[in-house]
Amino acid sequence: MGTPETAGASSVVLDCAWQFAFNLKHGKGTLGYISDWRGLGGLALSPDIVLWSPTPGASSPLPATLRTSSGGGATADQIKCVAVIESFSFGGESSDPIRVSAYLSKDNQVKLRSKLTRPLPNTLVKLDYTVIGFDEDSKSWYPAIELAATPSSAQINTRDGALQLFIGFEPVRISESLNINVYRLEFEIIPGTEASQLKIATGPTHRYATEWAGEE
To answer: 181-190 burial, b for 16+ CB within 10 Å, e for fewer?
Structure first.
């Protein structure tokens, strides 16, 4: 894939087939993963969700930070992540917030809930995430959202004094056929101390890059 062209404001709203990420037998769709989530003064969520990759092999559009091999094999046929993304939205302007909802494990839910019971030293976070899409015409996967360099520096946003970080108390079952529970996480971030570059694509050939940085 070549260098994306730089574009002006263009909002992005992606609804991901998060349940499909856990069970690849049922069709194809947009998929998103968080591979790194740390901050808030020392919290580091674990990449403890292991899934089969929808795009195994060296040609996968998924970043190397997500890919792993089962049984010590040579082929990267699995994904190891902190959370599976449900939705991703970005207004398009360089300083616009990014809002993400995702599902994570019980262990990470406990870590985050415990952290939020005490005053936070700060609201700075470092993140690594990606979203891939599937093009029906070419029958191929492509990176819909990716970071030019990782991790991304960010800060949890506040609205009317309320921190935009929410963690579900009740478990969510992946499907009727899979007795696996996950917990919903939702957060909104604004640019942190360092600018990031988002690489965005609406298809295999239409792509652009935009800077994500705070207002000077």
So the answer is: ebbbbebbbb
Cβ proximity of 96 and 90 under 8 Å? yes
Give residue-wise pLDDT tens across range 190-203.
999 999 999 999 89
The pair of structure tokens assigned to 77 is 């046929």
What is the four-CA torsion angle of 155, 158, 162, 168, rounded to 10 degrees?
A: -50
Separation CA 42–CA 54 (nearest Å): 33
State how far Cα 12 lies from the chain centre: 14
Tokens of 39: 């901050």
Residues contacting 210, CB < 8 A, separation 6+: 6, 7, 10, 92, 94, 197, 198, 200
Strand partners, 212: 196
| CA–CA gap between residue 88 and residue 20 (Å, rounded) | 16
pTM higher than 0.90 for the full model? yes
Instruction: Please count the other Cβ atoms lying within 10 Å of the Cβ belonging to residue 122.
Output: 11
As a whole number of angstroms, the distance between CA 31 and CA 143 comes to: 10
